[in-house]
Amino acid sequence: MTSRSATMPYLPPQKRSHEQVTRWIQNVLLKLCRTWVAVRDAEIIGYAALDGDMLEHLYLRPDVRRQGVGTLLLDEVRRHSPDGVSLHVFQQNTDARAFYESHGFTVLDTNDGDRNMENLPDMTLRWTPNSAQ
């Protein structure tokens, strides 16, 4: 939740409690997705979750951004995705878009927000091994 509010202040307020998010992580995310967790000094500082070839989540604690942690997580995701990886990103999330584009992702489509619960315009990005820079 800290990452979400720090990096995407334009999102509507989170409607789920910490307990609801924790249950969702335990009962949905960890059961449906291949998940990698970044740990430093016994503290979780970020995670990535892959469902098939769709990167569903890549979040970092705000205080560890721009230290290479996101790149390490993304590299691990790509290593386990030999045919490529897709993801959705909010159009307003210019930092995330720049991060993914710097790692060889290209825009596949844009959407007016009808496919996400926040109802905000988003885009689909895709990386394939032969498009790597």
TrEMBL record:
Entries under CDD domains matching the protein: NAT_SF
Sequence ranges assigned to domain N-acetyltransferase in this UniProt record: 1-128
Keyword Acyltransferase tagged: yes
SUPFAM superfamilies noted in UniProt: Acyl-CoA N-acyltransferases (Nat)
Molecular function as annotated in GO: acyltransferase activity, transferring groups other than amino-acyl groups
Key words of the record: Acyltransferase, Transferase
Xref: Pfam families: Acetyltransf_7
Record InterPro entries: Acyl_CoA_acyltransferase, Bact_Acetyltransf, GNAT_dom
Protein name: Acetyltransferase (GNAT) domain-containing protein
UniProt source species: Microbispora rosea
